[in-house]
Amino acid sequence: MDYIELNITVPNNDEAEIITALLSDFPFESFASEGTTLKAYIPAEKLADCKPDVDALLAERGIAQPHYITIESQDWNTLWEKQFDPVEVEGTIRIRAPFHEADPRFPIEVVIMPKMAFGTGHHATTRLMCAALAETDLQRRHLLDMGSGTGVLAIAAVKMGAASVDAIDIDEWAWHNCSENIEANGVADRIHSLLGDANAIPDKKYHAILANINRNILLADMPRYVHALQTEGLLFLSGFLEQDIPQLSERAEELGLTPAGRKNEGEWTLLIYRKKA
Q1: Residue 256 sits in which domain range?
Q2: What predicted TM-score, i.e. pTM, was given to this entire model?
Q3: Of 16, 44, 75, the domain-final residue
Q4: Per residue in 202-258, pLDDT tens?
Q5: Is there a contact between 39 and 5 (Cβ–Cβ < 8 Å)?
Q6: 155 and 270, same structural domain?
Q7: Count of other CB atoms within 10 angstroms of residue 131
Q8: Residues 62 and 141 in one domain
Q9: For residue 194, what are the CA distances in angstroms to 11, 119, 120, 141, 267?
């Protein structure tokens, strides 16, 4: 599968994060920053349907000439080796690629080969999720990871003690990549990778659900998450900006969820809710 790399010149990190959030409503699967350039990756076959809308959105942000580059799938690993540095979270979690050396200073290391799937730890929302998990007792807990991407959160969770994680992603490329990363981290016995959307959620109850997606999907699928949560279970939501909190909070309240925590990094936010009886 060939991908398109969209190159956008941005004035600062805040603008890069805002554009990343806006582009997340389209079928872009990965984002990376290189100096003043934001790079967004989308399957070539999916770009045609949304390119006019993407260009219009960027024009509204003052970006009149975005640059599109075709990247053949076999070049992906080489590309990431050039721009993927290890990510450290809270001094306890380190996310690295197989071509990086292990670092014994970190009690938890997650090895990820991205291969076009979202979730390398470089985005603020992934770091927020990892930090929140590190503060949660996951021992012998059963989790659901929606929009699992590379599987980074599912893998981190079982390395923190979770008994099992069902990891679901709608993208077939991400599903394959997640399965590979699960095997590479030696946790295939505790993580079940599934292809699909919220309809693929197994008919069982979870102690916690992780959903690092985007605002619109979270709003639409939150009732399914609540149904799949055990009483007193936790729902971790991220993938949105601070300005989206009122909509998400209203939806959560409608569904009987109780606020249980919040984290911010820049304009990005993570909300935690608890399901009460």
Answers
A1: 124-275
A2: 0.79
A3: 75
A4: 999 999 999 998 899 999 999 999 999 999 999 999 988 899 999 999 999 999 999
A5: yes
A6: yes
A7: 16
A8: no
A9: 39, 16, 19, 19, 31
pLDDT in tens, 104-156: 999 999 998 766 555 666 778 889 999 999 999 999 999 999 999 889 999 99
**Contacts of residue 53, Cβ cutoff 8 Å, sequence gap at least 6:** 26
d(CA 159, CA 171): 24
Q: β-strand 93-96 against 164-169: which pairing, if any?
A: unpaired
| Beta strand 206-212 pairing with 229-241 | parallel
C-alpha Rg value of the chain to the nearest Å: 18
Mark whether 207 and 135 lie in a shared domain: yes
How far apart CA 41 and CA 69 sit, in angstroms, is 10
Which CATH number is 253's domain given? 3.40.50.150
In the numeric block, which tokens belong to residue 54? 């993407």
Q: At what angle do helices 215-228 and 245-254 cross, to 10 degrees?
A: 20
Contact assessment for residue 97 and residue 84, using Cβ atoms and an 8 Å cutoff: yes
Helix (H, G, I), strand (E, B) or coil at 195: strand
Structure letter (DSSP) for residue 103: -
Identify whether residues 130 and 265 lie together within a single domain: yes
Amino acid at 131: A
Q: 21: helix, coil or strand?
A: helix
DSSP 8-state class, residue 176 = H
- Give whole-number Cα distances, 212 to 36, 49, 204, 269, in Å: 25, 24, 20, 10
Question: CB of 128 within 8 A of CB of 270?
Answer: yes
Question: Of 258, 13, 29, 74, whose CA–CA distance to 271 is shortest?
Answer: 258
> Helix and strand tally (H, E) in the chain?
8, 14
**Residue (of 75, 77, 116) closest to 97 by Cα position:** 77
